[in-house]
């Protein structure tokens, strides 16, 4: 599931959620869904990039997104929280689209670019 959001050079596709049931994993379904959202973000909405947020502890998902061409843009402190004061940081991962000719939507070493949720 996704949407288009932002303004000017922040106009982009955003992956709201992607889930594949365990018995259907490793069949290329996530890859297909991501490519579809990227294609819509590029061809229909003329976005600069596609982004998503993922828990820093979710190494499997991070590896999958990197395989799909995403890189960490920044780390968001306490992005995920629960009612019992447990918080977890998220990586904001991005993949530039052809409109971003200068690749301004990605940065090197984004893991070290730390922000708070209220600064998003």
Could you outline the blueprint of secondary structure elements for this entry?
Layout: E1 2-5, E2 12-15, H1 29-43, E3 49-55, H2 59-67, E4 71-81, E5 87-96, E6 114-115
Parallel strand pairs: 2-3, 4-6
Antiparallel strand pairs: 1-2, 3-5, 4-5
What does this structure look like?
It comes from Rhizophagus irregularis (strain DAOM 197198w) (Glomus intraradices). GO terms for molecular function: protein-N-terminal amino-acid acetyltransferase activity. One of its GO terms (cellular component) is NatB complex. Residues 80-120 are annotated as: Disordered. This protein is of the alpha/beta class and 120 residues long. The chain has one domain: Gcn5-related N-acetyltransferase (GNAT) (Aminopeptidase, 3-Layer(aba) Sandwich), CATH 3.40.630. It contains two helices and six strands; from the N terminus they run ββαβαβββ. A hairpin with a 5-residue loop joins β4 and β5. The chain is globular. The two termini are 21 Å apart. The mean pLDDT is 94.
Describe the strand arrangement of the main beta sheet, using strand numbers.
1-2-3-5-4-6
The total domain count is: 1
Strand residues, percent: 25-35%
Number of strands: 6
Structural class: alpha/beta
Just name the CATH architecture.
Answer: 3-Layer(aba) Sandwich
Order of helical and strand elements = EEHEHEEE
How would you sum up the major sheet?
A: 6 strands, mixed
Protein name: Nat3p
Keywords: Acyltransferase, Transferase
GO molecular function: protein-N-terminal amino-acid acetyltransferase activity
Biased composition (Basic and acidic residues): 91-106
